[in-house]
Amino acid sequence: MKARRNTLIYLLLNVIIEMLITYELADTAYSAVKETEIRSETVLDASYDPVSRPKLQTHVKAGLNVLAIDELDLKGQKLTMAGWLTFEWEDDRIVWDKSAKDDIEYIFTQPKYIWKPELVVDNALADLGGIESNDLLMRVKYTGEVEWEPPILISTHCQVDITYYPYDQQKCAIEIVSWTYTIEEVKLDHLHEKVNLEDFEMHGEWEITHTEIEDKNLTEHLPDGTVRVYPQLDFWIYLRRRTQFYNLNVMMPIILTSLMVALVFIVPVDSGEKLSYVLTVFLALAVLLTIVANSLPPTSITISVLGLYLGIVLILAAVGILITVLILIMNHKEGQPEENSFIVTITRCTAKMMCWNSSALNSMPNDKVSPMKAGGVVSTEKHNDVKYDVTGDTLKRDQSWADNNIELTWKVMAQILDRFCFYVFLIITVVMNFSFVVALATGGRTNGH
Questions:
Q1: Can you say whether residue 65 is alpha, beta or left, with left for phi > 0 and alpha for psi between -120 and 50 degrees?
Q2: Quick one: pLDDT band at residue 19, thresholds 50, 70, 90?
Q3: Rounded mean pLDDT of 170-176?
C-alpha cells in the first residue's frame, strides 16, 4: 500500500514538473520586451537609414491579390477593383539571432521606419501617388526578409474591345512601376505565377477566366540624351461577361423588333395602318440603336457587331417604308398600267417566282363574281379587269396571265408586290438575325486574347 502511494506521488510530481516546463517555454516563446529590444537594435537604431536601399540592386518580389471587382465601365474604359499588394525583399541590416532573443522570429514595425521601394500604379486614373500604407505594420523576419501588404481600392485604365458586345471578353492590367529606382537599383519580379484569387468574391456581370503576369521595362529618354530604364510588372486579368441578362433584355427585343419589319407587307393595303405600322417599327429600332450606343464607349478603334447589325436593320426598315409608300400609291392609282411597261414586267416575274395561282387571286378582297343563272348557264362578267367563268359549283379563272397575257390592274399589282416583298424581307431578316447572333456568340467566345 505504501509503495503504491509513493508511486502515485512520483507520477503527480512528474506531471507538475512537465506543466511548469511547458508554461515556461510558452512564456519565453514571445516577449514584448524582447521584440522592443530587437526593434530598437535594428530599425530604430541610429545607424539604420530608411532612405538608403539595402543593396546595390535590391530584388523586390510583388504579387497581386484580388478581393472583388467593383465595376468595369465600358463607356469610361475604367476597371475598379479592391484587393491588396504583397511585396517581399531582403534587408541585411535587419537581422538578429533568434536563439538569443527568446526564439522570436518576427517583429513588426511601421513603414516610415524602414526602407521600402518607391512604386506607383502607372495606369491609375485616380490617386496617382506612390503605393503606401502608413497605418498598417510591416512584418520583418529574423533573416532580414521584409513583407509589406498594402491594401488597394484602385481604378485603372482598361482599353476595352466592344466588337462582340454583349458576348465580349476583356483584358485589363494593373501596371506596377518603380518610380525612383532604375532597374540597376531595384529589380522587380513576380511573387507568384498568377494573380491570387483565393478570396475573390463573385461578380454579377463579369467572371475572371484566367490571369497572367508580365515582366517589362519602362524606358525614359531625358533631354540630355540620358536613357533610364525602370522595372515594370503588369498583372493581366481576363474577364468574360455573363450574358444571361443581356440575352433577355438586349438581344431578344432587338431580334423580335427586327422580325416585325417584314410583317408590314401582310398588313392589308386598305386598312389605313400600313404606313403607321412600319414607321412605329422604324422608331423602335432607332431607340434600340440609341440605347446600345449609349452603353458603349465613343471609340473608333473597334466597331461593335451589334451596332452594325442594328444599323443594317434600320436601313432595311427605311427601305420597307419606301416600298410601302410605293405600294400604297400603286394601290390607289386610277386607270390601267401599260401592258409592256417595266412595272408590269416586274409584277409578272414576281408572280411566276411565287407560283401565284388563281386561288390566291380569287382571295383578293375586291374580286367579285356574278351569281349563277338558272339552268346552269354560263355567266361571264369582268370585275376589276379580272374575268371569271362560273359553271355549276366550279369556280375557274382565265389562266392566260401565265402566258403574260393577263390584264392586271394597279390594285392587283400592288397586292402581288406586297406579298413578294413579305417573303423577301422575311428571308433576309431571318438569315441576317441568325448570322449576326452566331457571329456575336462564337466570336465573343473565341476571342479570348
A1: beta
A2: low
A3: 93
CA angle, 203 then 204 then 208, to 5°: 45
State the pLDDT confidence band at 449, using cuts at 50, 70 and 90: low
Q: Among candidates 301, 321, 318, which has minimal Cα distance to 310?
A: 318
Report the distance separating Cα 150 and Cα 148, nearest Å: 6
pLDDT at position 25: 44
Cell reading at 437? 447572333
pLDDT of amino acid 102: 84
- Evaluate whether 31 touches 106 at the Cβ level (below 8 Å): no
Is 166 within 8 Å of 306 (Cβ atoms)?
yes
| Residue 164: DSSP 8-state | T
Look at 335 and 205; give whichever has higher pLDDT. 205
Give CA 435 to chain center in angstroms: 20
Count Cβ neighbours within 10 Å for each residue of 40-70 and write b for 16 or more, e otherwise. Answer: eebbeeeebeeeebbeeebebbbbbbbbebe
- Are 353 and 317 in contact by the 8 Å Cβ rule? The answer is no
Region 115-126: what's the mean pLDDT? 90
DSSP 179-223: SS--TTTEEEEESSSS-B-TTPPPPSSEEEEEEEEEEEEEEEE-T
CA dihedral of residues 384, 385, 387, 390 (deg, nearest 10): 20
The residue whose grid cell reads 417604308 is 321
Q: What are phi and psi of 44, to 5 degrees?
A: -95, 5
What's at 84, amino acid-wise? W
Residue count of the chain, please give it: 449
Which tens digits make up the pLDDT trace of 263-289? 988 888 888 888 899 999 999 999 988
